[in-house]
Specification:
single chain; alpha/beta; TIM Barrel; Immunoglobulin-like; 2 domains; 6-stranded antiparallel beta sheet; 20 strands; globular
């Protein structure tokens, strides 16, 4: 009996020890698994943002295919990934090409090609099966967080697809015509904007406001999303954002990007960043010979008068709309492309990389059909990696709510742009020939500098020395 009792006691101790060890391993695992810290103003100072077009990013067009490349994207200095809409796309009135809906196409095989617009959402709480499952999306988010990168969703608050459940269950959420019919988005004169594959939402409805906020909270609370890029945010009443954003921020510190230029959207702790449309248009005009440095100078002054000091603008030379509808980087910027890309990084604000830009994408991606980007690293990848490192590490390029100073340097040449940015004792000087002509100019700059791109030292004497520039040549000088 004593022997049996001893055996039982030994087994109990053994099992207890094993259970305790197992518990310790779990606890140790939990301790070593670090959640990413909430996004902060400090992160935004040095951030690069990446727009991910999941459908076109890879041949597979899936979350998984993109997730594999997140460690590579990190090398470009990316701290925020913006996912283009990942929601199911409406079948009803699904866009094909031109004014045609998929339903207008008789050939069944031809119909299958058209996947519709990402912005015709049929359910804000589900994922598009074209891209994968919710588990695949979670893996993407976790991988980004493990790499120190935040993830924001492209949110579509202005309209829904025609088979969203609200159409049937809550028609009061939508804009109606005189006949009481739900309409697509209209211009001020009452004519269609051409977005016939979506139904316009009416924010006079309190029910809509509550439902929209609830759906946005879903992604913050349940799926660890770090914020939103809000489509045509200026077409949604400011009063909605004043109601919604504080409620979202109660759940978590989030990053809010408005697809809009309106300064009022950045006031009172609403959106953190808006689109630098004016800067983008000036770059296009200068590259095309329609404007010179004075247009850039005017834009910089315009920013200081239109926006508050802690407002952030997104700088870009391409994005999904520009690429698909207005032309590739090469089409719009030609030989000025590299100079304008560098200017995007050194100017005040946050630079954007659009899927494929890093791989020298040189065709207009299809919008309603499957397409894909090249995946061979070339000159642009190397440049983005170099610029990203400088953006991440130099306080002189801080572009957030406590941005580095910007000071124009006079050159007495309408095609030579020169300015200096400084913060915390760090200074960077940018000089560029914004023309397709060989130029010589006097530079009132003195000292020894590191030419960051060539990694060579350069001496400037500042005493009316004529300095030569090739067409579209630029220099990023570090003191």
């Amino acid at each position: 009996m004593k022997k049996l009792t001893l055996i039982i006691l030994t087994l109990i101790v053994f099992v207890s020890c094993k259970t305790e060890k197992k518990k310790e391993v779990v606890e140790e695992g939990q301790e070593t698994k670090k959640e990413i810290a909430p996004i902060s103003d400090e992160v935004l100072e040095t951030a690069v943002i990446y727009e991910a077009n999941i459908r076109q990013y890879s041949k597979e067009g899936t979350f998984d295919a993109f997730t594999k490349d997140i460690p590579e994207i990190k090398k470009l200095g990316v701290k925020v990934i913006w996912l283009m809409p990942i929601f199911p796309i409406s079948e009803t009135k699904r866009k094909a090409k031109g004014d045609l809906f998929v339903s207008d196409i008789k050939d069944e095989n031809e119909r299958k090609k058209y996947l519709g617009s990402y912005y015709a959402v049929s359910d804000f709480t589900k994922v598009n099966p074209e891209f994968g499952t919710i588990e695949d999306l979670r893996e993407l988010i976790d991988t980004a967080h493990d790499n120190g990168i935040y993830v924001i969703l492209d949110w579509v608050p202005n309209h829904t697809g025609w088979d969203h459940p609200w159409i049937k269950n809550h028609p009061e959420y939508y804009t109606k015509n005189k006949k009481g019919e739900i309409t697509d988005p209209l211009k001020e004169d009452g004519t269609s904007m051409g977005w016939t594959d979506v139904a316009d939402l009416n924010y006079d409805s309190e029910g809509l406001r509550k439902a929209m906020i609830s759906d946005m909270k879903h992604w913050i609370i349940k799926e660890k999303i770090d914020g939103f890029r809000c489509d045509v945010a200026g077409s949604v009443p400011v009063s909605f954002w004043q109601e919604a954003i504080p409620k979202l921020r109660q759940e978590k510190d989030i990053f809010m990007l408005a697809e809009a230029w309106e300064p009022e959207l950045l006031k009172g702790n609403l959106f953190d960043m808006a689109y630098g449309w004016g800067t983008h248009h000036r770059m296009n005009e200068i590259a095309q010979g329609k404007a010179n440095v004075s247009a850039w100078d005017h834009r910089m002054k315009e920013i200081t008068t239109m926006y508050e000091k802690d407002d952030i603008l997104m700088n870009f030379i391409t994005n999904h709309d520009e690429n698909s509808w207005n032309g590739t980087i090469k089409e719009r910027l030609g030989n000025a492309a590299e100079t304008m890309l560098a200017l995007n990084y050194v100017a005040p604000g946050m630079p954007l990389i659009y899927s494929g830009q890093e791989y020298d994408l040189n065709h207009r991606l299809k919008f309603f059909e499957k397409d894909s980007i090249p995946k061979t690293k070339g000159k642009t990848w190397d440049l983005l990696e170099k610029l990203g490192k400088l953006k991440n590490t130099s306080s002189a390029l801080h572009g957030g709510k406590k941005a580095a100073t910007y000071a124009k340097i006079e050159t007495n040449n309408k095609n030579i742009l020169a300015f200096k940015r400084s913060k915390n004792g760090s200074t960077i000087t940018f000089i560029a020939n914004l023309s397709n002509q060989h130029l010589k100019t006097d530079l009132p700059i003195k000292g020894e500098f590191l030419d960051y791109i060539s990694n060579k030292k350069i001496q400037l004497y500042g005493d009316n020395e004529a300095f030569g520039f090739n067409p579209w040549e630029y220099k990023i000088l570090i003191e």
